[in-house]
Structure formats: structure tokens, C-alpha cells
Amino acid sequence: MTIYGVALLAISFLLGQWMGSLLGDWLGIQANVGGVGFAMIFLMLGKEWLVQKKQMTSEMTGGIAFWSKMYIPVVIAMAASLNVKSAVSSGSLALVAGIIPVLASFLAFPWIMKKFNPKHHG
């Protein structure tokens, strides 16, 4: 049954890549735009559909969980390295556009945690 979880993941990946290519073509870019995001959406929708139909078994869940643990970090690392290469080759504006949100996050995160983190009474 684990193979069915992997099959759902594979179908989601293929549909996501297809949708990303279509979106890229529609935008006039010869690239896959958001294929991984579409794949994740298809995977979530497919999983929920199987759960509603009571077809999702623990073995299928295990197959999806195993490959998602392997797949997601690899894809994120690949996308991050491509984004860095693209930003560096595009010039200083792309670098500034990437650095500003990171710095803003570093500054805002401690304030958010202090403001909204409930105090634990011991």
C-alpha cells in the first residue's frame, strides 16, 4: 500500500509541473512558475479526497510522509540556490530586494514573539 502513497505523490508532482509550465507559458516566460506549489496543492487535495472517501490507509500516509521528508528539503534547496544565482547575476536591486525582507523579519520576529507569546505560569 505504500506504493499508492508514492503514486499519489508522483501524480501530484506531474500535475504541478504541468501547471507550472502552463503558467510560465501564459506569462510569456519559458520556465516553470510555481510547479512545486501546485504539486503541494494537488497532493493536499488528493489526500483530503482520499480521506473523505475513506481510502487513505496508514501505509499510504507512510509512503507520502517518507517521500515528502526527502522531496521537500531537496526542492527548497534547489530553488534557493537558483534564486541566489539569479539575484547575484541580476544586479544590486535584486540583492537589496532580498536583503530588506530578511532584515525586517529579523527585527520584527523578537517583537512579535514578545507581544503575542503567552506567558507561562509555573
TrEMBL record:
Annotated keywords: Membrane, Transmembrane, Transmembrane helix
Pfam families: MadL
Top-level division of the source organism's lineage: Bacteria
Keyword Transmembrane carried by entry: yes
GO cellular component, one term: membrane
Ranges annotated as spanning the membrane: 26-45, 66-84, 90-112
NCBIfam families, A to Z: malonate_madL
Name of the protein described by the UniProt record: Malonate transporter subunit MadL
Annotated organism of origin: Algoriphagus kandeliae
Upper taxonomic lineage: Bacteria, Pseudomonadati, Bacteroidota, Cytophagia, Cytophagales
Gene label: madL
